[in-house]
Amino acid sequence: MKLSDLPADLLAARPHLFSSATVPVSAGDLARMREVIAAVERAIDLKVGAGGTAPGKMSGVFMGYDFHLTPDGPQLIEINTNAGGGLLAALQAGRDDVLAAYVAMFRAECPREIKALAIVDEQPASQYLYPEFLGFRTLLEAHGIATLICDPAELMLCHGNMWHEEQKLDLIYNRLTDFGFAAPAHAVLREAWRQGVAITPNPALHARYADKKNLIALTDAAQLAEWGVDAETRRVLLAGIPKTEAVTAERAEDFWQRRRQLFFKPAAGYGSKGSYRGDKLTKRVFDEILAGDYVAQALAPPSTVRHEVAGEMTELKADIRNYVYRGAVQFVAARLYQGQTTNFRTAGGGFAVVSEVQ
User: Fold this and answer.
1) What is the pTM of this model?
2) In the chain, count of helices (H) and strands (E)?
3) What digits encode the pLDDT tens for the residues 217-252?
4) Is 123 left (phi over 0), alpha (psi -120 to 50) or beta?
5) How buried is residue 144: exposed, middle or buried, by Cβ count under 10 Å (0-12/13-18/19+)?
């Protein structure tokens, strides 16, 4: 499968989805990112065990570990359990081996032979990454997996199985940003998950990895030691994740005074929505942050690349996303942008190929 197999009109309507830039990343930084990811996995397993639950491995497709490359090494700024773009970026890079790994990943997520799968999102055709949904359908159907793209309202739960009209579904690929299936419109998914229908990713995975409050504990040396995390793993985590704190009204003055060194994020947010660099904050927005459920992360500015756009050299910021399955990195891509956060609205920005350099 190739990028040209996706509908040209949909790609044309998204002119900033892909960047023609190539982002060099050193072999050492790639290795350090893998080291941080492995350390997070170890620590979270111990956290679950400390909570009285058998750790066990919990998997989900397209875990995203997002890093900024800094003079002090890669800094993990966010963990996502619903990381979009993995297929698009692999197609952009021409990585057939990665596509094969993705197909194997979906098969591994299903407890039985997978014959039919549904990609589920609200009004999927209106989603910015809808071309990726179509790409998944093409890829998976080429491997004998019937693939539907649908809204949750089109699904029906019957006798412990999920159905779309007359099609019984073996697996739900969840692209919703309602991570806990809390909305009334998603009640069928919530009940299906409760009854054991295979849904990936799911609310338990999000709570375990992607709630940003987890970063508070992962940057708290005393908490890590209490979980039984060994000294070397603690060192890796504390060096590789910016210090993260819960924002509380009681500490308002402290956070306001330090705001220029902080980045504020909603604990349950996604896609950089509602996120703010502290040096850009107004008092009104800060009051809204205090009234919400936010974390503050030590500022770890992204690296930049220079790229020619419309005949002029332009500086673009870079996020480096590691797509991870069961603790192993499958693929690494960059997202280029200007402004505070990735937005796919920057001329010359979008997904970019990562080139490993020495």
Assistant:
1) 0.94
2) 12, 18
3) 999 999 999 999 999 999 999 999 999 999 999 999
4) left
5) exposed
Other C-beta atoms lying within 10 Å of the C-beta of residue 42: 19
pLDDT score of 57 more than 80: no
| 53: DSSP letter | S
C-alpha 344/C-alpha 78 separation (Å) is 18
3-state secondary structure of 79: strand
Structural contact between residues 98 and 143, judged by C-beta atoms closer than 8 angstroms: no
- Tell me, rounded to whole angstroms, the distance of Cα 18 from its chain centroid: 18
Give the contacts of 275 (CB within 8 A, at least 6 positions apart). Answer: 263, 264, 265, 266, 269, 340, 341
- Whether 2 contacts 88, CB under 8 Å: no
The token pair that represents 307 in the structure block: 């790229």
Q: What letter would DSSP give residue 73? A: E
Residue type, 13: A
Report the relative pairing of strands 167-169 and 155-158 from DSSP bridges: unpaired
Query: DSSP of 305-327, one letter per residue?
Result: EEEEETTEEEEEEEEEEEEEETT
Q: 291 — phi, psi (to 5°)?
A: -80, -15
Tokens standing for 228? 């039984």
Give the pLDDT score at 273. Answer: 73
Q: For 215, phi and psi rounded to 5 degrees?
A: -65, -25
Residue pair 52/232 in contact (Cβ under 8 Å)? The answer is no
What is the token pair recorded at 269?
A: 């947010």
Residue 261's φ and ψ, nearest 5 degrees, are -105, 10
